[in-house]
Design goal:
It is a single chain. With 69 residues, this protein is mainly alpha-helical. The protein is 97% helix and 0% strand. It contains one helix and no strands. The N and C termini lie far apart (101 Å).
């Protein structure tokens, strides 16, 4: 009975360990992706702020040109 129980539990234990390892690798991959996306988001925000400043300068230049005419 004990040998049969061990033979039955070994594949179960191995599959549990396999699932745990797989989940840990998936979590690590997702954390890496999330970090990369956060960095890209910060870069995007910085670019949008720079673009907004440039548009504001253009608006001021156009307004100045209208006043001079």
């Amino acid at each position: 009975m004990t040998t049969e129980l061990i033979i039955a539990l070994v594949p179960v234990a191995a599959s549990i360990i396999g699932v745990w390892v797989n989940l840990n690798s998936n979590v690590a991959r997702l954390k890496s992706r999330m970090t990369q996306m956060e960095l890209q988001q910060d870069e995007f925000k910085r670019d949008i702020k720079e673009l907004l400043k440039a548009v504001h300068k253009i608006e001021l230049m156009l307004a100045k040109m209208q006043v001079e005419k």
